[in-house]
Each structure stands twice: as C-alpha cells, then as structure tokens.
Amino acid sequence: MNKIIEKAASRVRSRKPSPGGSTSDSKTLKNQGSNASCLNISSTNTLGYGNLRCAVALPEGEDLNEWIAYHISDFYKQTTMLYGAILPKCTTANCPTMSAGKHCYGYLWQEVSGSTPKPLPAAEYVDNLMTWINELLEDEKMFPSAINLPFPAQFRDNAYKIIKRLFRVYAHIYLHHLQDVREMKMEPHLNSSFKHFIFFVQEFQLISAEELKPLQEVIDVLTKKVPC
Amino acid sequence: NKPRKRVFKTIREVPPRAFKFYMEQRIDNLMKAANERIERKRGLEAEMCGQINSMTERDRDVMRQMLRKKETQHLRLTRRKMNIDQFITV
Ligand SMILES: [Zn+2]
After folding, report:
1. Domain limits for position B53
2. Domain ranges of chain A
3. pLDDT digits (tens, 9 = 90+) for B51-63
4. Best CATH choice for the domain A55-222 from the list 1.20.140.30, 1.10.645.10, 3.40.50.360, 1.10.1370.40
5. In what helix (H) or strand (E) does residue B63 lie, and over which residues does it extend?
6. pTM (predicted TM-score)
7. In A, which residues are within 8 Å of B78 by CB distance?
8. Complex-level ipTM
9. Do the Cβ atoms of A137 and B20 come closer than 8 Å?
10. pLDDT tens for each residue of A74-89
11. What is the dihedral of CA A109, A144, B10, A183, to 10 degrees?
C-alpha cells in the first residue's frame, strides 16, 4: 500500500515540467548564503522555470554585448536544429508563405533595403533568415571572436533584429507544426528551447509586445512567474 | 510526381533525434555553466577571506576584476566554439 502511494506521489512530482526531458541537475551546488545567487535555491531534480530564468540574467559585472552575442549564437544553433527537424514537413504546399497563424501574421522578406518586401514559402524565408544571421555571426567586425576586440556601435541594433526574427521561427513552428512536433515527440524540447529564448527576451526587453502577440498564450503558460 | 528537391543555402534537415539530444545536453550544460560561474566567484571570495591579513581591499578588487575579465573571455571562446560547431551534424 505504502509503495503504491509512494509511486503515485512520485508520479505527481514528476509531472513538474522537465525541460529537455532531462532529469539531471547540477548536484555540485551548495547553499552559500549571501554569496549564493538565486540559482542555488532550486535543488529539484528537474530543470525548473526558476533556474532557466536566472540563468539568462546578466552576471554581475559582465559586458552586456558579450552576453547578448553569446546568446544569439546559442539561439541560432537551437533554432537551426529545431527547424531542421521540421523542414521535411514545412513544404511549399503546407506552408506557401511564412506566417504565424494562417490569417494573423504574415512575414514578408525584403531582399535588400529599399526593395519591395514579398511573401516567400516558409522554408525559403527561414533559409534566407538563417543565411543572413550566419553571415553576421561570421562577420568578425559584427561578432568579434578575437579576445579583447570590441563590439561595433551598431551591434545592438543588429542583435535586436536577429532576436526579433528568430522569434518568427518559433512562432511559425508553434502555430503551424505543433502536431508534427508532437508526433516527433519533441514538444518538451521545443518548449525548453523557446522558454530559454523568451526568458532572455523578457530579461532585456528585446521584442515589442506587438511582435510577441502570436505566441502570447504560449509565453504566458511557459513563463508563469516563479521566484528565483 | 514527386516534388523536385528543394535547394537551400543554409538550412539542413536534422534528424529529430539529433535535435532532441542536442537540447537535452544544451539545457543541462547551460545550467551547469551558470552554476560553475557562481562557484568560481564564491571560490575566489572564500580564498580571499583566508588572506585577511595580507590582502588590502584594493588587492581584492584587482582579483575580482581579473576574474570578470576571464569570464568575459570565456564567453567569447565558447561562442566561437559554438559557431564553429554550427555545421557539424550530430
Ligand atoms: Zn511550415
């Protein structure tokens, strides 16, 4: 009897969100009183909300540009892999235009500034987008990789643009491919990736409420305020 | 009549398994990295506590500054590595 109750209880416990499907957590952390940051508090076995939210906060004394650049590389990689998994389902027939919700938000691609923005099949749009980001990432002047090389004045502008557009990839996947995601059993992975992304966006207020609208519901569910 | 193969500049098909594996590792690692950073800071402070007689407050600030600089460099190196790994398929 006790065993059954224990089992049931553990099932309830394990229903706590477990981003990434991973159950391991850092076990190295001890509670260090005043020196400890908010991360120390959550000692659960799952990677809870509080953890991720704290992990994106700017560490004391860190350079904000460096922090943003690091996260952009990270999110670029996560979204290219995520979208790569969806790509076979994101055909021209299924997704003739890049959108987030069929009648809500359409995204147009503008090849060069001044030219007329035009609709593209979603896959082509994402390919153009990722190509554009990748070129910036490889541009030593924009994303310096040599130690001590400074970021350029226009870094912040470009960074905001990249983040804003990466959001559209998540929006497209949530609103057009959630069923595919579920069939591939990668919903927790999508959620973890997006949660990481959106915590970062919220921390530094990188995307306007208007742009976030297509996924507002998802955001509300995933980012329920949990104290650090 | 199969649709002709699409050609892309940057995006590639990724096996769902690879994406899942990557995310599991990634979430794990980023939590670890955050905790390790806190641990390094704590370690330095603890070490300096033990040198209460031989270190002035200025010395301590120099040490803290050095650690911050190292952390920034560490971020940059990690980013560079992430970019290089970008096209290595799992
Ligand atoms: Zn699609």
Report:
1. 16-85
2. 55-222
3. 877 888 899 999 9
4. 1.20.140.30
5. helix B57-85
6. 0.81
7. 70
8. 0.90
9. no
10. 999 999 999 999 999 9
11. -90
